[in-house]
Specification:
The chain has helices at residues 2-5, 24-48, 54-80, 91-97, 104-125, 132-155. The protein is mainly alpha-helical. It starts with a helix and ends in a 16-residue tail after the last helix.
Amino acid sequence: MFLTACGGDDDTAPGKDAAGGRGEASDAAILNSALDLENTAIAAYGAGAALLKGPALEAGELFLEQEREHANGLAQAIKDLGVTPNKPKSAGEYTAMFPKLRNQKDVLEFAVDLENTAVAAYIDALPKLKSRELRGTAAAIITNEAEHITVLLDALGQPAVPDAFVTGDRA
């Protein structure tokens, strides 16, 4: 609830800014950037699946499906704004950008990095979205991506819940 309020106090309809103008173009650009991130995550989970096993594979398959749901929802929201959603790159284009994934640990660490990038991007985008409805959608996706991070960290044997304060001490 807190995150959906970010970006303004107006009660304007989706796509309208506080001045009554149309915010669809800026919202669509933000959503297309988010769609690009989701498509990257889809490719990453797809590419890494062959290296995962047991509970990590089950989680990876679930996360892949959820990333597809995010991408489909974003694409529909972009279409609803009257804009064409960005198309995903080819699998080869994505894997060329990925680090070498040799084992489950590599896949999980890369997935944590991708999920952290997605959370940061959504948090950055949240106050820029003109539509309250789209801010709610972004906040819901942030929550899900953060859940992914928790599960991935646990699979890596790292603390799934961070300390309340980061001090810089590593002792």
